[in-house]
Amino acid sequence: MSTTQPKAALLLSGGMDSLVTTAIAHEQGFALAAMHVNYGQRTWQRELESFRAICNHYTIEQRLEVNADFLAQIGGSSLTDYSMPVSGADLQGIQGSSIPTSYVPFRNAGFLSMAVSWSEVIGASKIFIGAVEEDSSGYPDCRKIFYDAFNTVITLGTKPETDIEILTPLIEMQKSEIVRKGIELKVPFELSWSCYKSEGKACGVCDSCARRLRAFELAGVRDPIDYEERPHYIA
Q: What whole-number distance in Å separates Cα of residue 15 and Cα of residue 20?
């Protein structure tokens, strides 16, 4: 008797968190469909390249590349507004005490809404997103409580027969744990991209690069991507 794989949609940015999330979903046996959103961010071309390379690696054929550059028109983030400098590393900040300039206002709600729409059409029962709360930059839309609430929104705002759930397998992990999980799953970290500023070599000094480099240092392995600078972020 043949069995049909359950289908899951991935929100795949091309960063290391979404890469490891992809590997987890793949390991769990889902038939994967991947969505990538260009929202006018500084490194959109490099992120799109990573998205395509990761999809190729995991043989994900069903893909959707969405243009949501209205977020750049709205502005309010150093990732989309070139007049705002990208913040440097703030690894000592207390989560929730301040919101960094790289926060894109309510971005993940828009991404999830598009993913839910697509999932209804293609018959996906799960949506995977690589959100991280414990070791994030304090973004309000990376908190577990936000995703729990959004799952309620899905139930209330879709057809009665629709059954879609957002899964956040990394939400309670530290970045170093994510690196270790990726090593365990043999993920191609060299295909991922995390830098907020550069599309050639990663800058090494923005908050995203710093958190990534620190995570690899804590995990005891070298990050395989190239950096303009490679500071040490642990004593």
A: 9
Residue 51 and residue 58: Cα distance in Å, rounded?
A: 11
Tell the residue number behind the tokens 């899951």, with chain if given: 8
Which residue in 37, 5, 48 sits closest to 117, CA to CA?
37
**Radius of gyration for the chain, computed over Cα atoms and rounded to the nearest angstrom:** 17
Q: pLDDT tens, 161-195?
A: 999 999 999 999 999 999 999 999 999 999 999 99
How far is C-alpha 226 from the geometric centre of its chain's CA atoms? 20
The two three-digit tokens of residue 203, written as one number: 């800058």
| pTM beyond 0.90 | yes
CATH of the domain spanning 7-174, picked from 2.70.70.10, 3.40.50.620, 3.50.70.10, 3.90.180.10 = 3.40.50.620
Alpha carbon 35 to chain centroid distance? Answer: 11
pLDDT in tens, 142-163: 999 999 999 999 999 999 999 9
Q: H or E stretch including 184?
A: helix 175-184
Q: Where are the domains of the chain?
A: 7-174
Element spanning 63, H or E: strand 62-67
Strand partners, 98: none
Question: How is residue 89 written in tokens?
Answer: 């590393």
Which amino acid is residue 103, in one-letter code? Answer: Y
Q: How far apart are the first and last CA of the chain?
A: 57
The alpha carbon dihedral of 34, 132, 111, 37 has a sign of negative
